[in-house]
Write a sequence for this structure.
């Protein structure tokens, strides 16, 4: 996974034997599962270590079989930066809607072919807020057992 520049973040899933299904295409579970990982890693790099990032909802649309390495590209990255910056400035918990295009690298041609699109909703919460909430619950449990 790497940030190519300020406007583009990408992750690459190699086309290996372990990722293939019985008809020699990329397994759908590999494409789907790694899209959550790629989206989460992108958000971790944006919000920093002070936030917990949780995938709440994910919708993956398969368009065609993927018969080569898959590239995950975040769509509309500049608007995403602005949305996250505003939410962090306001403080507290927030949701982020993220759209990723999944493309196959065409080895003989110097281009990519879109094989899927993933729309995800992530929930970001400050770790300090989560810790205080869990300590309140623990104190409440101790009072009930005493």
């Amino acid at each position: 996974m790497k940030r190519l520049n300020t406007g583009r973040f990408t992750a690459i899933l190699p086309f290996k034997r372990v990722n293939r299904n019985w008809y020699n295409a990329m397994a759908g579970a590999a494409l789907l599962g790694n899209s959550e990982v790629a989206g989460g890693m992108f958000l971790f790099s944006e919000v920093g270590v002070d936030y917990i990032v949780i995938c709440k909802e994910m919708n993956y649309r398969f368009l065609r079989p993927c018969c080569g390495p898959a590239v995950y590209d975040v769509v509309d990255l500049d608007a995403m930066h602005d949305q996250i910056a505003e939410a962090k400035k306001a403080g507290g918990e927030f949701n982020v809607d993220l759209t990723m295009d999944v493309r196959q690298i065409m080895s003989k041609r110097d281009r990519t072919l879109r094989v899927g699109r993933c729309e995800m909703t992530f929930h970001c919460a400050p770790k300090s807020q989560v810790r205080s909430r869990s300590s309140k619950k623990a104190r409440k449990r101790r009072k009930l057992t005493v």
Summary: The first helix runs from residue 28 to 47.
